[in-house]
């Protein structure tokens, strides 16, 4: 059980690291949102899954309840994070922000 | 220049770290914070106030007057925003030729955002009620619950439009609710006074309603927290409406 949890948490940390590097490296709003939305969602999911597994190790009723609450948070993040990314991209398109092309300046 | 800035930041951080050496040791009984009234709060709050959560006992019973005036501060902030920002002008006065197809018109016409907002607003409101009602036993209380409620309303306003938001709570309703919260809080204090005890001493309320002391205290704390939550919700909603529409409370900015 503990090895499963450690693998989940390390995977989540790896995804979060990739998201951070992408936000720092990429040239404009849309590409940065692409990295942030996808990788941070998946990283948070893996981290929360690992935490739920860690909580459920003693297999008592109370611990399982806490793990269930963590799974509910996971569902919430899974729905809201892509929606927030979608809303930001939508606002950028409506405000007339053109996507980055090869040869442009970083923005 | 960048290196200079970095050096300044590092030096400031080191100075801050140095000042932490002057802090008292963790749990030192000689510090001012743990000398005067803390011991009495920790030892006697359960038998005097019958409230399991010490923080709630301090904020809602020992210092209820202070909390009441904090609520009035939030109410006054809402009123000040109203008096400064609200204009009698309409959108047409401010923008003589409002184009129909304005590319900057960011009114929520998006199916995804609308659906997710409609799904999550009831859950957010339920969580706000939970935080409000469980302030007696666990972390939470009126201010936090009120902010969560206001966040649900603001989510409705940014995902749909101002017209929908006003249909759910008009401007008059938010003003009345923010005043009603303060009135509820102060009214509990006055009701306690009619039984011959001090202002906001909930033992008086327990005597009037014929309850035990613990039931009276928990009932009174629930009522005053509801008052705080009403005021905070309505004042935040008021400020949001005024700031998001240039004081006209109309769509289109």
Automatic annotation (TrEMBL), chain A:
Task: Report whether Transmembrane helix shows up as a keyword of the record.
Answer: yes
Which GO-annotated molecular functions does the record name?
Answer: sodium:proton antiporter activity
Any Pfam family hit: PhaG_MnhG_YufB
* Keyword list, A-Z: Membrane, Transmembrane, Transmembrane helix
Kindly indicate whether the keyword Membrane belongs to this entry. yes
The membrane-spanning stretches of this chain are: 6-27, 39-58, 70-97
What the entry lists under PANTHER family is as follows: ANTIPORTER SUBUNIT MNHG2-RELATED (PTHR34703)
- Protein name, entry field: Sodium:proton antiporter
Species in which this protein is naturally found? Pseudodesulfovibrio senegalensis
TrEMBL record, chain B:
Please name the InterPro entries in this protein's record.
CPA3_antiporter_subunitB, MnhB, MrpA_C/MbhE
Instruction: State the source organism's domain of life.
Output: Bacteria
Na+/H+ antiporter MnhB subunit-related protein domain residues are 112-237
For this UniProt record, the keywords arranged alphabetically read as follows: Cell membrane, Membrane, Transmembrane, Transmembrane helix
Q: Where is the MrpA C-terminal/MbhE domain?
A: 31-93
- Presence of the UniProt keyword Cell membrane in the record: yes
As for membrane topology, the entry says: Multi-pass membrane protein
Q: State whether keyword Nucleotide-binding applies.
A: no
Q: Where in the cell is the protein located?
A: Cell membrane
May I have one GO cellular component term? plasma membrane
Q: Cite the Pfam families for this sequence.
A: MbhE, MnhB
Q: Which residues cross the membrane?
A: 67-85, 120-137, 143-162, 174-197, 217-240
Which family is it part of?
Belongs to the CPA3 antiporters (TC 2.A.63) subunit B family.
Q: What is this protein called?
A: Sodium:proton antiporter
- What is the protein's species of origin? Pseudodesulfovibrio senegalensis
